[in-house]
Specification:
homodimer, alpha/beta, 8-stranded mixed sheet, 4-stranded antiparallel sheet, about 40% helix, globular, Tscrpt_reg_HTH_GntR (chains A, B), transcription regulation (chains A, B)
Chain lengths: ~475, ~475
Amino acid sequence: MAVPRERTPLYRQLAGHYRHAIDAGTLAPGDRMPSVRTLMERHQVSLSTALQMCRHLEAQGLLEARPRSGYFVRARARASLVPVAEPRPWMPDLLQYVGINQRVSSILARGLQADVKINLAVAHGSPSLYPVNALRQATIRALRDHPMLYGTPPPGGGEARFRAALARRALEARMNVNPEEIVVTHGCIEAINLALRAVAGAGDVVAVESPTYYALLQTLESMGMRALEIPTSPQTGISLEALELASETYDNIKAIIVVPHFQNPLGSVMPDSHKARLVTWAASRGIAIIEDDTYSALGDDGNVPAAVRSWDTTGNVIHCASLHKTLAPGMRLGWIAGAKWQGRVEMLKYAQTRPNEALAQIAMGEFIDSPRYDRHLRHLRAQLREHRAAMAEAIATYFPAGTRLTLPAGGLSLWVEMPGGVSSELLFDAALAKGIRVAPGSLFSNSARYDHFLRINGGQPFTREVDAAVRTLASEIARLLDTKR
Amino acid sequence: MAVPRERTPLYRQLAGHYRHAIDAGTLAPGDRMPSVRTLMERHQVSLSTALQMCRHLEAQGLLEARPRSGYFVRARARASLVPVAEPRPWMPDLLQYVGINQRVSSILARGLQADVKINLAVAHGSPSLYPVNALRQATIRALRDHPMLYGTPPPGGGEARFRAALARRALEARMNVNPEEIVVTHGCIEAINLALRAVAGAGDVVAVESPTYYALLQTLESMGMRALEIPTSPQTGISLEALELASETYDNIKAIIVVPHFQNPLGSVMPDSHKARLVTWAASRGIAIIEDDTYSALGDDGNVPAAVRSWDTTGNVIHCASLHKTLAPGMRLGWIAGAKWQGRVEMLKYAQTRPNEALAQIAMGEFIDSPRYDRHLRHLRAQLREHRAAMAEAIATYFPAGTRLTLPAGGLSLWVEMPGGVSSELLFDAALAKGIRVAPGSLFSNSARYDHFLRINGGQPFTREVDAAVRTLASEIARLLDTKR
């Protein structure tokens, strides 16, 4: 059985077992499921558990009930679904387009004004996936243990035990970071802001993955830096050939920002050989690497991949990360290790927001330093895997032919290419009118390259309502396709 | 009797009464205090209360005990203490000096390495002055009332009730701010960062008060902006004549930053007529005003002065403030109202650190929206007044002749000019070696203008240890003076 956990209800354990069989092809589309009576006998479970299991797999789109005949494995469209194409090489160009902030602001504003019932635009898990009660208790303990906490300014750099715990966790990604080098920040986004300010200034060129998350493009634009978009594989991440080529044309690249693992929005993972080559090459060219490692704990196989930083021997890799996606979307705790720019990073943090408040650090530090964090991560990964697969299935089943989709091996996002060049912003508005929010591909580049893509959240339980929302999206896409013909 | 409060012990109420009499001259230096027996009869108090009261006033430097004669009003040096001079007009110049960050970092680092026993370098009250228990309880309530708080990203702009409470409190400063215009930030320093980024860019000129708080100079330097230091009166704040004159020479001033009330480090307060004139003039010149209003609730008389923003009719004043100094130094909650730059401020906040976490906002919102905040502020003001006066007395008593000091009518800081051009950094190091930390004047300007000044914290109880520290400072200054001769 797949991932049996103490707290997992029996019907879900069973469902995992049969999902596995379906994934493996042991049960093929059109096959009849064992009858409820058979299930009860075979697994020694009650009628209610057997039924609940079947309904659960039905809700996930894996089974269908046929009147008076029982449950059958559903015909799955995934086989017909083509992964998103590898990027055709393009010469990275410094697009003159400025206005990503305006575009993002306008889309966020439309999203906020609408009455959104199903929000597929986010890039975090649903609240039920996070250990909110344990963190609340940890916070209350911290308040009791530190009665004068609110009376004294928080310690510079961060709270000692939290920094030590982060440094210990970094070992899992094969990094040796001194706790003193860790500067606690307001989420990974502040870490990225500080890293960029440390290594570059207005007018400088910064190489980024394409597509990349819009917060990064916003930050670059707000600092007057120029984003050089590098072709990026949905499988293996940034193209090193394209990057090396671009550096022949642009001799003023100051930094490269990479999300090596489960990249947002692609879900790509850089192979170790790429990371090693990138580190050596960037050091030889005097180009700083800024690594955003927010998602690396979210791989399906549970192995934390080695950070780019782990290959660094010259202090050329600034490591940025966050607990926002892995531990608590309601907390904004990130960190940065500034490598050879450490002094400047510390100064900028002090001048920008001062040290972070201590309370959250104490509470989170206690949690991540315990096996409870490991247990939580195992649970979170299993859930994300299930939710992501169910969402991919639904897209494969309902979206029009020609849709392309890569199912990543971890992370929170699905990156979907719509057929026929359907405009993601038209779809965004049409979906919003029906109470559904998605993230249009136009947010993820300064170019028009991804205008017919969508980022769909893979971090929420696949309920009947979500299923209905995916059907609605599918019919809106079909309608937009018709309009184009 | 002065400021009778429910929780004030009897001996402190009595002490306030006699302090008043001494302040008013009813009891003159050299006068004998009523005997302990007289005090007991006159006020119907116990022997212990009467004695405690006398010892308290002795500790504050107001009385001295003469063996077998009782307590006498101490000869006070304050009369001989000259206020800090009004600035001699200088032509504001764009100093080429860059390196305030290096200087600040070096001084902070030295301060952190040393074994500091008495820290007079801070600009906040001691922990005992803040309602830490009430805020802890409010936080625990917030955690109980919002069980899913840690599971969902915090709301954009800030938590609704907190913003509404801030808007209501702003009415006290005669401001009409829509709660929607309030963006919650990480302390006032993030608000100032956002305001500067909204109105200016690298290379631009920003007019500042001189002296000003070093965080501001750091922020400007870190953004590559140029600080134009304007002469500022210890009494009435920034010199409008000098500012107007400077604008004739520099036609590229993008913004003016003012701390209108109880300025850090001077303690100056701009008269209403100056604020009105500044607003009209700046609007006519197209120069943005950034108002840092962190200290306005800390006036001895308890009246919140009208914000500069309250005179604004053209959307030209960005208002920044914080609860860090008035409610909880351990919390980093500030806010900004972006006036005509609101859209850009919102975008920059989103790109820089994302919305603040909700927990602290809920807890603080509940507190500041209740009369408990008013009671706390009354208590805080009374305590600060007492601590500031005691510190000023001690400086007047112990520091060498020629020392100048202005006693502000509110706030947290004392600004002290040492005689004979004694170097504040030499004193800083000498004091640090004895476990005492002060803020050297060289931190408060890019010029050498304040190298012989000190900022001394006026926010901590004047204990025997603090008294001893001031004596030590005095003798170190005397020693440095001797060295110079």
